[in-house]
Amino acid sequence: MKERLTTFALALGALALFYALLFPKPLPDHEGQDLPLSTETRAHGYQAVWRWLKAEKIPQQALHQPYSNLSKSSRGDVLIVTMPPQVPPRREELADLDEWVARGNTLLVMAALDDTPPWCLGADPSFLKSLGRMTRLEFDAKTQGVEKRAGQAANPEQRGKRVLRALQQVVEPERIEFRGRGSLPLFDGVHSVLALSEFPASHWNGAGIDQAPVLEIAERQPAPDATAAEPVVWLQRHRDGQILLIGFASIFDNALIGEQNNARLLANIIAWSRDPKGMVIFDDAHQGAVEYYDARAFFHDPRLHRTLLWIIVLWFLFVLGWQRMRPAAGDWNLIDITHFIGATGEFFASALTPAAAGARLFENFFNALRRSLGLREDGRPVFDWLAADARTSAADLAELERLYQKTQAGRRVDLVRLQNLTSRILGILR
Hints:
By secondary structure, the chain is of the alpha/beta class. It has helices at 2-22, 47-55, 91-102, 127-135, 156-171, 262-273, 295-300, 302-320, 337-351, 354-373, 383-388, 394-408, 415-429, and strands at 60-63, 78-83, 106-111, 137-141, 174-180, 193-197, 204-208, 215-220, 230-238, 241-246, 280-283.
């Protein structure tokens, strides 16, 4: 009993070590979550935009592969990417996306910078690095509220207003409006665009990371305690293409696409950036809807967990149940030499063709005769010497020559007959 308890404890330890070192840890459950997908019909999906494009006969596509699978010959396409992603893009993907944009395509990025939808709660803050590499911009958080003047503290009344506004935003979503700066084709007929932030959000400044000019083409309505309007839409050229970054992830979802001039802004963006033969592509892959093998999704599958549970149960039953703790030592059995030779012969017989085996028998036969005659053992025939020796019958010599010609032609021979014939001749001559 003590041995079984020890075995059980060691088995548990081995299982725990295996899980800790090799098995991926459970992931947050995104199944059933309202994500910004082209197939999602709930509030934060893009199904309304998808149906509108279909009604307008504008080609659309849902991307379920990495950015590396974007068409290498396309021009005039529009890719809609929503950040933060559920599946972060790899560095090599971003390089391929950069080349895709440079060929003459448009990247439209909807980034949850100034709004916080429920689906992006708990997102990894490092997504800002991917966003920066994707849009060629860098971001830093703005200081909220009234800035302190030199040597003076903020007004207590203003601080109280900021605290009250933050509490109200926790209780009810914040409605944010922004509008275009100046007269641009993108904001033709767009007087106001509405965004919705269900949870408090930070505000961000964006600046270019290279020498390419960046246009701040829209600004949000300033807060009562803000010193100036804040830019929320950035546009920059990238060789033959362009990158358009909107600091809100909610303005084109199913809940808000029909509000104010949101739909008009999207129509202007597509009309301005899409080639007549181009298509609108929704990046569903990096929101978790992938067609390629996803190891994290595989290990998160409950069917895998149930299978592993059954394997573990059966393993414990085997270890603790009918496995013999001290297996009896078996008696040593001497291998029969005849059986060993037979098995070796069967192995070579299965590996050699009958013609090759026959040729080898003839080579051994002639070498044995040459050895007795003091000749060089090169396997060459000695039919003349056999014909001159009266001990060799004419019938055996004719049969020997016939079988030899068949082996030289690569034809099948009766190996048993050949072995008996050569053995009889050698027995007579020796």
